[in-house]
Specification:
Helix content of chain B: 40-55%
CATH architecture of chain A: Orthogonal Bundle
Distance between the termini of chain B: 62 Å
Number of domains of chain A: 1
Distance between the termini of chain A: 24 Å
CATH topology of chain A: Arc Repressor Mutant, subunit A
Number of strands of chain B: 24
Shape of chain A: elongated
Number of domains of chain B: 4
Structural class of chain A: alpha+beta
Radius of gyration of chain A: 15 Å
CATH class of chain A: Mainly Alpha
CATH superfamily of chain A: Winged helix-like DNA-binding domain superfamily/Winged helix DNA-binding domain
Largest sheet of chain A: 3 strands, antiparallel
Structural class of chain B: alpha+beta
Helix content of chain A: 55-70%
Strand order of the largest sheet of chain A: 1-3-2
Number of helices of chain A: 4
Oligomer: heterodimer
Shape of chain B: elongated
Number of strands of chain A: 3
Largest sheet of chain B: 6 strands, antiparallel
Order of helices and strands of chain A: HEHHEEH
Chain lengths: 110, 882
């Protein structure tokens, strides 16, 4: 069961991260908390999978990172959406909606 | 633009790995700290808060690995770890590692050394520009190739076709000629060539020039081109050599050019002399003493040129029906012609090397497979602990790579050393190779073979091992399986190795027997206590045959007077060492006609007592005598073969013999004696018709040199300087050269056979050793896997003998299978050795039986050790061990 969830999550995790960063630039923990709040607990387990996703997105040029000093005087790595990222977000959102729509139609017919 | 940044990240991770790791650490730590803080706020205990935070995060290490994956930083890091691991593995089992590396190195080394030499010998031995356009032209009589052509024929072929850019002719042997007028008088090797010889080969001189067409005309100035070696040796590298004059065989010549160092064509030459139109032996169509070398015109193929030659041959047959019927002119690429004598032997060695390489790889494969199976457990554990398959395979891959590289490096060194060894044993400069490098393609091939083996048999089984369900493997005791499939493959490998060894052993056995036969062959004359030397008289000093014969006779008398000398004589050419001339002979009372061709007999010129010196029996009549000069008909001594051929069942003494001399002149002789047959051309050539003339008879090629044959009582080493002294006393300007013992001359002629048999024997023994170690390893492994079973059998009353018999039997079965397959292959393969064998059949039963028996005995011995170990199994311990 956990395995299945993780697989689904891979595909949509990138989308979630992009969307989250669209609203605000955040560090890893912040992104994790925000996704938890919005998605209502999807990311309870396996928060670690966030980080490979972030680095992957950075590799693709959809986000960029920088080091900042937080309010608690700690060095934190903050991620920000790039312009390419914004475009990708729009595209992937559209793709996802199409996908969900098709799935719903299929499931309804039975 | 983004890719630049990506590259930057990659490099940063590569070179500043520490920093990248620290930063990642910091990032993740921050995440976890925040999570822990949140949990504490919710009221958990610190321990609980930490635990919850980690659970919700997932595996920190795993996350780090995944990030590292994405960042592509793994490569170098992994490689370093793999190498460390591989080295540790070496430390743990040095014996295994050494065995694998040494075996592979031997296989690679031998193959590469052999193949590089063969490659150079068969394909690259010509230092001329565009060597594939060079061809050699030789006459064929009804299809049989003679090495030589006649000059007028050559001229016709040259002028009658347009296929050649240049076609030159050369005398296929060098003449030893005395040289004076510069350094101390010496002998030089002179080669007669046509003026376009160097142009055809396409090689430029180092200094001066080569011949111009005018120098081929009858009254042209006398010139020579000298070799670099001769220039250094006799001219002392004198800068003024070009243009200077010296005396060669009585004529004053001018040096017009010096060839570059390393220039070599067919044989070592000191001076090339241009042959002039109309000079001796260029007019006689029936005297075949030349060879043609030509350069094909651009774009003309060998077939096209050959076709043109055939047309001209037909024309000649029409024009000269008596002599040119069934006579042709064969064109062969230069490389092929040069290697002809050696090609079969070299190919045999090539085959043996390939077999050895396969056997070596087989051994390595077996060793690696055994190791892979024993590591199954380890790999299962690691998989269960979370190692990814890809990672494991890559690690095993690296290990095998490490092995292969180590073996390859060692193999290359071995190859270089072996090459040097082979070149000192085998005078390959006869093939035109002065030095050999390592052939690139061959190196690649050998490395590929060994790499392939290492990877296939090292990483392959490991891949399948890691694929297996780890929990299953961990549950099963490895001892219940006897490595089923891998065990069968290994047994098959051993049987194959034995088969290959059989082929090598039989081949080498045949060659050795053949060589022994050659060595012990009766040559028809005594080789012990016999010294041969070449003596030359300064032509200017001794003008005319009278003076010359007086000088030689004087030397003979002086030498004969020496106390340790039994007898001495002169002959014009030493048996075995020098080629011979032959002329047609017939009984004048029944001359040849269209139905009967006159046979040809080998001719030699001798002084009286030659046969005594050589230990050849005089069967009838008498030897030459000094008083024969007064005879009406000049005398000749013939050998038994000739007597029986021309005068069967008659007394040949007193009969006359007609001889067709080289200038188409027919002379008559009186037969005064019959002597035993001698093997004179080569050890493996049965004696043909032979006849011996006295030196009083005018030799068609006036020569100032003869071969001195001296029969001594014993201890020849001290005698040689004494002989030299005697000669020098009579004439200080007469050099005595090529002094050797007859036994050495014969031995040298067998050099090729000796080397071939030694080399294949070496290969065969190595192959045998490798196969037997393979057999031993398989059986030892088998015993170790079956320890429990053996223990049970022993506990139930089986005697040690029973157990031993079963193991021994297993080993012998493998050997028998190998023998069977091997013999089957050997029957076919040894046929290829036909040309190398002398009086030994390709299916010589003695050799085959010997190999079979030997292998069974050695196989039994190899099986004995594991068999004995099996009897030592302690039944109690065996059953306890799990």
């Amino acid at each position: 069961m956990t395995g299945k969830k993780a697989d689904l999550l891979q595909g949509t995790l990138d989308l979630l991260v992009l969307k989250t960063l669209d609203l605000e630039s955040l560090h890893g923990w912040g992104i994790s908390k925000r996704i938890q709040q919005i998605s209502g607990g999807v990311l309870e387990v396996g928060q670690g999978s966030l980080y490979p996703a972030l680095y992957r997105l950075r590799d693709r040029g959809l986000v960029k990172s920088r080091w900042e000093i937080s309010e608690e005087d700690r060095r934190v790595k903050v991620y920000e959406l790039t312009r390419a990222g914004r475009e990708a977000l729009a595209q992937e959102q559209e793709d996802f909606r199409l996908f969900v729509g098709a799935m719903e139609r299929v499931l309804e017919t039975t | 633009m983004h890719w630049i940044r990506r590259l930057g990240w990659r490099l940063e991770v590569l070179f500043r790995k520490g920093r990248a790791e620290d930063e990642l650490d910091e990032e993740l730590k921050h995440h976890l700290d925040q999570a822990i803080r949140e949990n504490l706020e919710q009221g958990m205990t610190p321990a609980e808060a930490r635990r919850r935070a980690h659970v919700e995060f997932g595996g920190v290490e795993r996350t780090k690995e995944q990030v590292r994956d994405v960042r592509g930083a793994r490569g170098l890091d992994d490689l370093r770890q793999d190498l460390r691991y591989a080295l540790r593995g070496v430390g743990k089992s040095p014996a295994f590692f050494t065995a694998v590396v040494m075996t592979l190195a031997v296989g690679i080394g031998a193959s590469v050394a052999m193949f590089s030499i063969l490659d150079a010998a068969l394909f690259h031995s010509q230092p001329y520009p565009e060597p594939d356009r060079l061809v050699v032209g030789r006459t064929t009589f009804s299809g049989t190739v003679s090495q030589y052509a006649s000059f007028p024929d050559y001229a016709d072929y040259r002028d009658g076709s347009d296929a050649f850019q240049d076609m030159a002719a050369f005398m296929p042997n060098t003449m030893p000629v005395p040289v004076t007028g510069h350094d101390t008088p010496d002998m030089a090797a002179a080669s007669l060539v046509t003026v376009d010889f160097f142009r055809a080969l396409g090689v430029e001189p180092q200094a001066g020039r080569t011949f111009i067409p005018e120098e081929g005309e009858p009254n042209a100035a006398e010139v020579v081109v000298i070799s670099h070696g001769f220039w250094q040796r006799w001219f002392g590298g004198d800068a003024d050599a070009v243009g200077s004059t010296f005396n060669i065989a009585g004529s004053t010549v001018t040096v017009v050019g010096i060839m570059p160092p390393g220039f070599y064509f067919r044989f070592p030459v000191d001076a090339w002399i241009p042959v002039r139109r109309g000079a001796w032996d260029t007019e006689n169509r029936r005297s075949h003493s030349w060879q043609a070398v030509g350069r094909l015109r651009e774009g003309v193929t060998l077939e096209q040129a050959q076709a043109q030659m055939d047309v001209i041959s037909a024309q000649l047959a029409e024009g000269y029906p008596d002599t040119h019927e069934n006579k042709g002119f064969l064109l062969t690429p230069l490389g092929e012609a040069l290697a002809e004598g050696y090609r079969p032997a070299l190919l045999v060695l090539m085959g043996a090397t390939a077999l050895l390489l396969f056997i070596a790889c087989g051994n390595v494969a077996g060793l690696l497979m055994a190791r892979a199976t024993s590591r199954r457990m380890e790999l299962s554990v690691r998989t269960a602990l979370g190692a990814r398959r890809q990672r494991l395979v890559r690690q095993l891959f690296t290990e095998s790579l490490f092995l292969a590289v180590a073996a390859g490096g060692l193999g290359v060194l071995l190859a270089l050393w072996l090459q040097r060894l082979i070149l000192t044993l085998f005078p390959l400069d006869l093939l035109g190779i002065s030095e050999v490098g390592l052939s690139g393609p061959m190196l690649g091939y050998a490395l590929l073979a060994s790499l392939g083996t290492a990877l296939l048999f090292g990483a392959g089984p490991a891949v399948t091992a890691s694929q297996a369900n780890p929990s299953e493997d961990l549950r099963n005791t490895p001892r219940t399986t006897s490595g089923g499939k891998s065990g069968r493959v290994r047994s098959g490998l051993v049987a194959a190795q034995v088969a290959l060894s059989v082929v090598l052993l039989t081949g080498s056995g045949l060659l050795i027997r053949s060589f022994v036969r050659l060595q012990t062959e009766n040559l028809g004359f005594q080789t012990e206590n016999l010294v041969a030397a070449q003596l030359s008289a300064e032509p200017l000093k001794y003008e005319g045959p009278e003076a010359l014969s007086q000088f030689f006779q004087g030397v003979l008398d002086d030498v004969r007077a020496m106390p340790e000398v039994v007898s001495a004589a002169f002959v014009d050419k030493v048996p075995i060492r020098h080629p011979w001339t032959n002329w047609s002979v017939w009984d004048p009372e029944s001359p040849p006609d269209e139905t009967r061709r006159a046979p040809s007999a080998f001719a030699r010129f001798v002084t009286p007592s030659y046969f005594d010196v050589m230990g050849v029996p005089i069967l009838q009549g008498r030897d030459h005598d000094r008083r024969d000069v007064d005879n009406p008909l000049p005398p000749v001594v013939v050998n038994q073969a000739l007597a029986e051929a021309l005068f069967p069942q008659e007394d040949p003494i007193g009969r006359r013999l007609s001889v067709n001399f080289i200038m188409a002149e027919v002379r008559e002789y009186e037969i005064v004696g019959v002597v035993g047959d001698m093997r004179i051309t080569a050890v493996n050539q049965t004696p043909r018709l032979q006849m011996y003339f006295g030196f009083g008879e005018i030799h068609p090629i006036p020569s100032h040199s003869r071969e001195l044959m001296v029969k001594t009582q014993s201890d020849m080493a001290s005698l040689i300087p004494a002989i030299r002294r005697k000669v020098r006393e009579r004439d200080p300007d007469a050099p005595l050269t090529q002094v050797s013992l007859m036994t050495d001359v014969v031995s040298a002629s067998l050099m090729g056979n000796r080397v071939l048999s030694l080399a294949t024997a070496l290969f065969a023994i190595t192959a045998l050793l490798l196969s037997m170690t393979g057999l031993y390893a398989v059986l030892a492994y088998h015993v170790s896997r079956r320890t429990r079973e053996i223990g049970i059998r022993l506990a139930f009353g089986a005697t040690g003998l029973h157990v031993m018999r079963s193991v021994l039997g297993r080993g012998l079965v493998l050997v028998l299978i190998g023998l069977g397959v091997g013999f089957a292959c050997a029957f076919g393969v040894t046929r290829l050795l036909q040309a190398q064998l002398y009086q030994v059949g390709t299916t010589d039963p003695l050799t085959f039986v010997g190999v079979g028996v030997g292998l069974l005995v050695i196989g039994a011995l190899a099986s004995l050790l594991p068999a004995r170990r099996a009897t030592r199994v302690d039944p109690v311990r065996a059953m306890q061990a799990e």
